[in-house]
Structures are given as C-alpha cells and as structure tokens.
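Supplementary notes for students who missed Thursday's class. We covered one full example, reproduced here. Read the sequence, then the structure, then the short commentary at the end.
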Amino acid sequence: MLENTRQVVAAARDAGAVVMHAPITFAEGYHELTRHPYGILKGVVDGNAFVKGSWGAAIADEMAPQDGDIVVEGKRGLDTFASTNLDFMLRSKGIETLVLGGFLTNCCVESTMRSGYENGYHVVTLSDCVAATSPEEHENALKYDFPMFSESMTSSEFVKALDA
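Structure (token representation):
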C-alpha cells in the first residue's frame, strides 16, 4: 500500500497535480473530543494515538510532504471535510477530481470519499493505496461501499490514466 501510494504521488507531482496530505492530530489530552468518546475515537484516546508532535501523528517518511504539497490542518475526526477547510482549498484551486488513498479503508478514506461525492467532486479511490485493520473490512468496503461513492481503480491504472 505504501509503495503504491509513493509511486502514485510521484507520478501525480510529475503531472502537475496538487498533492495534499491530511493527517489526523489531537492535542495532548484530546480536549477536542467529547469527554466520553466511543467507537474508533475511543480507541484513539485509549491508545494515546495521533497526538500532535508525536511519532504516532507523523506522516510516514516515504510520504513526507515536498515543496508545493499542501498539508491540510485541523483534521480532528474521520472525514477530512468535516473539521478542515479542505473544500475551500479545493474550490479555490478549481479542483474537481479527488484521488484518495490512506488508512483506514472503511473509516477515514470512506468518510472523506462520501463527503467528496456529496459535495459534487468526482472521486477516485485507489484500491491498492488504502488499508484497513483486517482483510475482511478492506474487501467489504472495496466491494460494497466504494462503488456507490467513487470510481475505484488501482494505482497502476491511475498512473496510466495520468499519462494518457
């Protein structure tokens, strides 16, 4: 997944596409969240994950932002649109197509995909540039959910489409 994504990002940069990174981060103590989180956000709090400035909130070295990339700030939940100015940035740049990769297939990626779809973007989700906590969750999202809200393709199919 990571190597596929690295190759896609390099090809996208070469083609002149805008590359955006949307890391999820929280302040120490998770004061941005309800005092009684549940579901996946309870797991984040219980695991002390994604604390701003910590290793767990860092973008992987292989995916480090480069000059010209945009790091979307303020992602405090699953959907990148919900707590950021992502929509404003996309519209101000005239971007109509989103190409998504990331982690978790059936959580953050799917939430952002759905919002992108509902906000009128053409959404492409790269099936081999996403991952979940289990093969079953990953495959279920790819088979049942992705086709309703995005055009799904592999990283190699996308890179070929960039060259066309």
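Commentary. The first strand starts at residue 20 and ends at 21. Residues 116 and 128 are 19 Å apart (CA to CA). If anything here is unclear, bring it to office hours.
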